[in-house]
Amino acid sequence: MKKNNLIISILIFFGIIFSVSVFAKNNIAEVPAGSENTTAQAVLMAKQKDKAVQEVDRRIAFLNEAIEKIQITKKINTDQKNALIIQVQNEITFLQQLKEKIKADTDKTTLLEDRKLVVQRYKVFGLLQSEIAIIAYADKILNIADLMDPQTTNTEAKNKIADAKSKAQKAISDILVLTFDGFPQNKSVLKASKDLLTSARQELNEARVIIKQGTTQP
Amino acid sequence: MGYGDVNKYMENQTSVNGQFGSFQNKKWPWIVGAVAVVGILIYFVIDGGGSLVNNWSSITEFQNTNLNQTNQTNSNNSSTENKDIDNLLNQLDLEESRVNQSLNDTPIDIMTDD
User: Does ipTM exceed 0.90?
Assistant: First the structure.
């Protein structure tokens, strides 16, 4: 009797194991073929969108701050200021529209094209970013030169201040003629303008030393 | 004009001088002057040096204070201006680093996920 019970228990056990395995197999078979690929593609697209949006947001944030910087600039004329602001605002609008399009993309190919557009469009941002940084730097140098000039009658100091001014003005005029299509080849002009400003700054520091020596002498 | 007329004219002139009198012959201006001088002296004695002197000192003091304040203000302004220029020159460090940053900027690599 006991032996029979043991055999029945073993049969029931194996029966349950078999049923569970058949049920599980059936469930797996119900998942359509290619679904794994679709899920993986969706995850990849989400990742690609995130990166693209992150880059676009980075550019928009800089350009928004840039408008304020341009507005407080004193040493470029109103026409130059307005032209720069319009360029920046146009780029912000373009990037905002592109961002919304990327977020709404459902097709892999369309998303790829939009991502390529983000990369290609870097030339506009790259140039604007450097132009605005150089103009802000030159503007400060020119303002400081204007403050220092009336403080001295020393010829050497005055010459250094005048040199600094002309270098800063040249840096501004050199970069304002650059075009987006010329980027990044025109980076050499941007670097040359930056070197001019470094030199102008050095002249102001030297003039400052001369002025201080003049005021401390009895 | 006859000799009698000349006499009458001279009498009239004498009476005019007599009516208004010459300044040297009158005593009242001297009395008024003396009273004024005595009055001023009494004023100075009573006032112990006089508020006039005090006022003058005050005016001088005010002028000196004002002058000192002006000099001080000018000196402060000049000192502030110098500090401002030094600060502005130091701020150029930041501007230069911003330019370097912009020249070395690299976009986020958004194509490597493919």
Answer: no
